[in-house]
Amino acid sequence: MLDSARSTLFDRYLGISRLLAGQLDFHSIIQAVAAEISHIIPHDHLDVCIKMLDGKYHIAYESGLETAWSRQPPALLTGSPIRTLLSGEVDFLLSPDACSDPRFHFEGAFSSPIIELSLRSRLHVPLRVQGDIIGALSCSIHEADSYTMQDVENARSIADLLAPYFFALRAAEQAKHSAIVEAEARAREEGLRLGALKLTEALEIERQRIGMDLHDQTLADLTRLTRRMERLTSLSEISGETLEPLCRMLQQCLHDLRQIIEEAKPSVLQLFGVTEAIENHLDRSVRESGLPVEWRILDESDGALLNIGQTVATALFRIVQEAVNNAIRHGQPTSILVHLRTFERMLSIEVIDDGGGIKKLRDRAGHGIDNMKTRARLISARFEIGRNTGGRGTVVRVTLPIDQSDTSENLP
């Protein structure tokens, strides 16, 4: 028959088992069982560290005194004061004074909480599942030389109770994390697929627009010019006054053709960069609109635009181009500001106008706002559009990391 002390100890183990039931995260388990464990192994500080599945990192969960161990993100195993236990080099660690024990203090060791909180007496045992070490149970107390080998044996029994629960929780968390990562990857892939599809549709509409412009405008003008020249072939003499209208028509055709080409291929962007291309487009768009619009560019990007790839540069220019066109076409503004800036390793471009506001933006599917959103999505940038907080008008903002990766080919 069990004696009274062993029976009480057995009841404590059963109490720990009951407290484990229904706990769904590591922190809850530690908080639930800490008081019951204190009846078996007195402690001022209790923690469980769990090895990550990659075997290189671990994370700590504490009860009682809170230290930097649990406030840190997963840390490298090589810096753990109990790395020899977690790697299986030793079967347990028992120290009468951990503040001076060289096993806990080595170059690169994250052992400062031991000194700061005077955690002198320390014992550590591994958490094992199917022979593999998945973590460690650690107990500490302020007084020196407080633990014995009997405490180590009791800690091993507690560790055997805890290990399967922590193993199952770690597996569940890993499965959850993997599912989230997979879902995010699928969402990104689907977003890129839909974005590419929308951009393809937009480009097809743009191709048709260019074709119609060439057919209805340039080709029609050239046809009329050709017919007038044919009529002149019947004349024996041709005066300068007769040729003057033909020269004007030819100059107009050249102007219209240059404008179509300019809109199709941003050569200023390729030659001089994003800022100059935006400035050129602003100047030309305002002049051609005939509106009294004051415009300016505020460049606080610290040269960040000089280092981005051509694909990202083209996408950013096209977004600003569309935003400027929308502002002039729909907003009837008196001023337009393009603000380029960097903050916290991010690049931001804002197009701010004082026009009629977002309610006046009307875009067909595949154009306008949808096209800007698609271009931003394809370079992993954040796109926002809303009312100007300074009063009337609209703000279009696109933001992306300064070190945004790029490919060698340009977006159309």
Automatic annotation (TrEMBL):
Per its UniProt record, what Pfam families does this chain match? GAF, HATPase_c
The superkingdom listed in its UniProt entry is: Bacteria
Does the record's keyword annotation contain Kinase?
yes
Q: Which GO terms describe its molecular function?
A: kinase activity
Cite the PROSITE patterns for this sequence: HIS_KIN
Question: What UniProt keywords apply to this chain's record, in alphabetical order?
Answer: Kinase, Transferase, Two-component regulatory system
Tell me which Gene3D superfamilies the record gives. Answer: 3.30.450.40, Histidine kinase-like ATPase, C-terminal domain
Name assigned to this protein: Sensor histidine kinase
